[in-house]
Specification:
Layout: H1 2-5, H2 12-43, H3 49-79, H4 88-102, H5 111-133, H6 137-164
C-alpha cells in the first residue's frame, strides 16, 4: 500500500534534487517580483491605485511566464541525469548564463534577475557533477560567471537609478 502512495524505487537524493528547481523558482519569483513592485512604486510618480494594480498585475504575470519557462523547462531539464554520461547541468547553465546576459533586452520585466539565479543553480550542480565525472567544468564556470555578472550589473543599475533617478547614459 505504501508503494501506491509514495514511490519507493526513487532514491531519496533524487527526490530532493527533483524539487530543487521548484524551490529556487519559488524563491526567485517571490523575492525578485516583490522588490520589482517596491522599486516601481518608489521610482515612478504615484498615479493612483488603479495604475498600481495594473503594474502589479503586469509584474506578476510577466514574472510567472519567465520563471515558468526558465525554471520549468531549462532548469528542470538541465537537472536530469544524462543517460550517456554528459554533464547536462553544465551545458544548461552555460545557456542560462548566455540567456541572462541577452535578457537585458527585456530589462523592463526584470528578466536578468529571474534568469541569473537559474544559471548559478545550474552551474553549482554542473560543478558538483564535474567533480564526479570530470566533464563540463568549463561550461559550468562560464554559465555561473555570466549569471553572476548579470546579477551584479542589474544590482548596479537599480542602485544607480535609486541614487540618480535615471539610468546611466550607456543604458
Amino acid at each position: 500500500m505504501n508503494a501506491a502512495v509514495r514511490p519507493t524505487n526513487i532514491p531519496a537524493e533524487r527526490r530532493v534534487q527533483r524539487r530543487t528547481w521548484l524551490v529556487w523558482a519559488t524563491w526567485v519569483f517571490l523575492t525578485v517580483e516583490v522588490v520589482h513592485a517596491v522599486v516601481a512604486v518608489v521610482v515612478n510618480e504615484w498615479e493612483g491605485w488603479s495604475i498600481f494594480w495594473e503594474n502589479l498585475a503586469f509584474i506578476a504575470v510577466s514574472g510567472l511566464i519567465v520563471v515558468g519557462l526558465v525554471y520549468g523547462l531549462l532548469v528542470r531539464g538541465g537537472m536530469k541525469k544524462a543517460e550517456d554520461g554528459r554533464n547536462r547541468p553544465a551545458s544548461a547553465g552555460m545557456w542560462a548564463g548566455i540567456l541572462s546576459v541577452v535578457s537585458y533586452g527585456a530589462y523592463f520585466i526584470w528578466a536578468p534577475f529571474l534568469i541569473g539565479p537559474a544559471a548559478v543553480l545550474l552551474a553549482r550542480e554542473g560543478l558538483k557533477r564535474a567533480h564526479e565525472t570530470g566533464l563540463g567544468r568549463g561550461r559550468a564556470l562560464a554559465g555561473g560567471s555570466l549569471g553572476a555578472l548579470s546579477l551584479v550589473f542589474g544590482i548596479f543599475l537599480i542602485v544607480f537609478v535609486l541614487i540618480r533617478g535615471d539610468y546611466p547614459w550607456f543604458f
